[in-house]
Amino acid sequence: LVSVLSSAIIVYRLPWTWKCSKLLMKFIHAGLNTIAMILAIVSMVAVFDYHNASNIPNMYSLHSWIGLAAVIFYSLQLFLGFAVFLLPFAPVWLRAALMPIHIYSGLLIFATVIASALMGITEKLIFSLQNPAYKESPPEAIFVNCLGLLIVIFGALVLWMASRPHWRRPPEELPKAPRPNGGTSEGTEAESTMTDCSSADKPDVGFNSEAARKRNLKLDEAGQRSTM
Q1: Which of 12, 54, 127, 224 has the greatest CB tally within 10 Å of its CB?
Q2: Cβ–Cβ < 8 Å for 11, 168
Q3: Taking Cα atoms as reference points, which of 3, 27, 25 lies closest to residue 14?
Q4: DSSP string computed for 167-222
Q5: Residue-wise pLDDT tens digits, 68-86
Q6: Residues 6 or more apart from 204 whose CB is under 8 A from it?
Q7: Residue 116 CB partners (closer than 8 Å, separation 6+)
Q8: Cα(166)–Cα(14) distance, rounded to whole angstroms?
Q9: Pairwise CA distance, residues 163 & 103, whole Å
Q10: Radius of gyration of the CA atoms of the chain, in A
């Protein structure tokens, strides 16, 4: 969950993916979340089987409570994400209303997963290290403590990328609405400017058209005389 879920969170935040279509990124986001959910279910089944085979009680520690809660809420998040944002049946207003909740709940689940992982590795060290004990800081304890610090730093970077506005995927440009005459809004403004200019020059246009009409009449008369 820590690695695959983080990839699903930041898949929209990578600049080299902004050129891809949003529908493609939706499928990648949903696919990564599905893979993370499958791996989480497999790992939980393995933990319960191991506890039952070793006569270890189930669901007694805070690590197990938070881990199970994270998986349950993650499954609900995945189901609502498919139903509302991936399938084309939900109305636009519903998507807009649920999007902030979807983002916040995803980040909250990711932080809960990190907390559960930290408690899990600490619990494993306390139970496994006997001689020397965990409190004596053997090399195994130092190694796992450093691993926990790296997990915290990694989670902080993912949350920072997901919360910064300049890492957000830019909105897609909407096509300009076509006009009845086939022009765009810029063309309409240009036409209105040309219309204003032409209306300002109406007396000159009228004078020129009258002179042209008289000139054409004289040419017609000359043509008729030549043919006669």
Answers
A1: 12
A2: no
A3: 25
A4: GSPPPPPPPPPPPTTS--HHHHHHHHHHHHHHHHTHHHHHHHHHHHHHHHHHHHHH
A5: 999 999 999 999 999 999 9
A6: none
A7: 63, 66, 67, 70
A8: 11
A9: 10
A10: 35
Q: Reduce the DSSP state of residue 130 to 3 states and report it.
A: strand
Distance CA 57, CA 120 (A): 15
Taking CA atoms, 110 is separated from 12, 37, 200, in Å, by 16, 12, 67
Phi and psi at 54, nearest 5°, equal -100, 5
> Could you tell me the pTM of the whole model?
0.71
Sign of CA dihedral 32, 157, 108, 39: positive
What CATH class does 1-167 carry? mainly alpha
SS3 of 113-126: HHHHHHHHHHHHHH
152 CB-near residues (< 8 Å, 6+ apart): 114, 118
Q: How far is CA 21 from CA 31, 95, 163, in A?
A: 16, 18, 22
Q: What is the tens place of the pLDDT at every residue in 111-152?
A: 999 999 999 999 999 998 988 999 999 999 999 999 999 999
Task: Give CA–CA dist 26/18, Å, rounded.
Answer: 12
